[in-house]
What does this fold into?
Amino acid sequence: MVRRLEHRFFVVVCISFIFFLAFYWYSGMQTLVTVKTIETGLVDTKFGDFGPSESQILGQKVRILCLVLTGPKNIIKVRSVKDTWGRRCNKLLFVSSEVGNDTSLGIVALQNVSEGRNFLWAKTKQSFRYVWDNHMNDADWFMKADDDTYVVLDNLRHFLKDYDTHQPIYFGCKFNPDKTKLYASGGAGYVLSKESVRRFIEEALPNKKNCSAVPGGSEDLEMGKCLRNVGVELGDSRDKLGKHRFMALAPDRLVARYPSYPIPAWYKKYMAYPQGESLECCSQSAISFHYVTPPNMYVLEFLIYHLYPIGVGNDPGKSFIRPELTAISQATTTTTTITSKPLNSTKIVMISPVINTTKLVA
It folds into this structure.
């Protein structure tokens, strides 16, 4: 009887030891994978290392069609948009008067539309008619942008997730040059709810009292008039600190402190709300910038999605966290901790400079 009990105890100890070794090996491998991910920035954009990230989930819940106005001479700009931020749109449309030689870009050629700023309003109206006829079921929100606009789609989705696309509302960089009527800057881009597009097409455009029928005029100003006349509200897109999310200038122009590179006088006149200078210019959840050259499209792409400041902590004022990553580093002196519990909708990985022990928090 005693020998039988001793035998059972020995079996239990062996099995427990095997489980302990398996657990220790798994924990170590998870740490190794996490550190490697942080160092290289290589993350499966479909599932991530720890399951779908918040940006991936929102990509399905907040569907955005990106409507980019371009022209036959701007193929380089089109390609830079498609290679960078355009990849994150649920549906990406380039509209022009010609398809061009590179059919891989998928440019839509509008009928009876001329190029140039004097005809931009006509192109905008035709573009939204095309979306209405062909793509209204492909998205919930409809972002109009220029081919020199850079859009951070992850931040846009996060901003829009609390709004109802069936409400008549749109967002952008608020202009108010004559201090009477607000409208959204066309260069910074503006995003319309599905109901706003419906009212624009069915109620505004057919009525000359609601919407200008002439091809000329400032596109953004005319769009603002049309939407206002059919009860579409221009919402406030600033963050809780009053910092701007949609920017009608390039980031270098807003951030630079050089006296020889000042903010243009027209910009200050047009802005509906005051804007801070230098690093206080823009929200940390900024959505768009205008006047971005093709090379700088790739620079912004790298800085936003591929550059990680190592060892600066998790203070939002000190570091930026890539949306695709489900991991954020938080250092201790001797312990590496991995947790699968979400914190502020983000899964956490804590990496220490000196690793002596590994814990797994379920």
Summary: DSSP finds ten helices and 14 strands in the chain. Residues 54-305 form a domain with the Spore Coat Polysaccharide Biosynthesis Protein SpsA; Chain A fold (CATH 3.90.550.50). The first strand starts at residue 64 and ends at 69.
